[in-house]
Design brief:
mainly alpha, globular, about 0% strand
């Protein structure tokens, strides 16, 4: 019995690790930073990783069972990764909880704005939300329309991927700048 339990847990961990690696790889596409001017800073990387985590979570939103469990494991992994990054940046034990609360509020606020714009198919509103969150320091961000198009394409591509493939640890994101 213990073999089955531990074997299953290891198999599930392999699946969630593979999915998380794909989400991180998608968020780290150099094109976002070099051509679309996303800030290549710790906060900018948080924004891009959060955006891709949102896309994954949005895909699994209506799923049940194992898919919901995987979605929860991955959101937990995302926040553990964020906490680890804060510590790597030199934030001490006293400052981490306060910053984690702030980053969690930021993430969930963004998911509401991005989700609303995607549900309405409103590329302009999505672009405004992306600019407000990713480049709040800029008066204008001409490349935001490209990123909004990417997000809409990613949402469509993810929705076309069978749940069985995702539950097996496979997910595909578009290549930034390919279209």
């Amino acid at each position: 019995m213990f073999q089955r339990l531990f074997g299953r847990e290891r198999h599930n961990r392999t699946i969630t690790d593979a999915l998380y690696a794909e989400i991180v790889a998608a968020a780290r596409q150099p094109y976002f930073y070099s051509d679309w001017d996303a800030p290549d800073t710790p906060l900018g990387r948080f924004e891009m990783l959060g955006l891709h985590m949102f896309l994954f979570q949005h895909r699994l939103h209506d799923e049940t069972g194992a898919a919901r469990e995987i979605a929860q494991v991955l959101i937990d992994e995302f926040f553990a990764d964020v906490e680890h990054s804060l510590r790597d940046l030199g934030i001490g034990d006293m400052g981490v909880p306060k910053r984690m609360k702030k980053l969690a509020r930021m993430y969930y606020g963004r998911t509401a704005a991005y989700g609303d714009a995607l549900e309405r198919g409103d590329r302009a509103a999505l672009g405004e939300a992306l600019k407000r969150n990713i480049r709040p320091d800029s008066e204008s961000w001409p490349q935001v329309d490209f990123l909004a198009g990417y997000v809409m394409d990613a949402d469509k591509l993810l929705s076309e991927q069978p749940s069985e493939a995702i539950l097996a640890g496979t997910i595909r994101f578009p290549v930034a700048g390919a279209a």
